[in-house]
Known about the structure:
globular
Amino acid sequence: MVKQHFVVIGNPIAHSKSPEIHQHFAKQVGLDINYSKQYCPNDTSSFEAVVTAFFHGGGIGANVTVPFKQMAFELCQEQGGLSKHALAAGAVNTLMLRQGRLFGDNTDGQGLVNHLQALNWPLEQAQIAIIGAGGAARGIVLPLLEAGAASITIANRTVSKAQQLIDDLQSGHERLAKASLYTKAINELNGEYNLIINATSIGLSEDTLPLSKTLQTTYAYDMMYGRKLPFLQHFAKLGATTSDGFGMLVGQAALSFERWTGHRVDSQAAIHILQR
Ligand code: ATR
């Protein structure tokens, strides 16, 4: 049987764990696939050339990572179609062909929700705060509301960006127009939340978030993964249950794999094996 070809396009790309994750899924369901990493210069015409060459060459599916998720969105807008979640996120992480045309989806937010549910963190009626108002934050708002969140407060260093994000989301989507969405400066976020999610790009940098001393949460999630994350250490000390974002990475990959191949995979098993 001819191997199916998949790729992840990014810049930088060397660190990507996607090939390992997708090969693990392929093994789970007995498929023999080729999944490679593709570096791309950071400009629109290079990105378009890489995507076009990949699909012309018979490629089945492409993942798109930093900094190309918005470019992928625009390319699909021009040339093909977009899923509801890609439209709400304003970004695409999963590309495929549909009736010969480019189609873009976004599985990041649902990947997060699936991981939270696998952890048994309750989302129904949850009061959630998201810190950060960039692309990462934008992609998770609709899936969290669909999973039952009662309200979402977006706290950002630049409050006007959080407000802009909410205005964009509410003007473009009926479900979001009726949702309880609020903005705050990070240091003004206080009181008690059920879940706080770090969606900033602060990650492992020396900077720390100016978190209020009165801010409490039952669950804290950092969309980054890797070494000890200061955000999670802060809330763990206050007694919160915490998780980094490795499960989200696996979760979004599982959904991409399912879209491309039609096979459902076991994300939890993948998380346990790959985290070792
Ligand atoms: P991404 O696509 O990963 O979300 P982005 O669109 O560049 O990346 O957004 C980065 C987010 O991290 C923003 O919310 C940014 O805050 P500003 O909008 O005020 O720039 C936030 N961020 C980055 N570094 C930060 C820091 N040192 N302190 C607080 N917030 C930070």
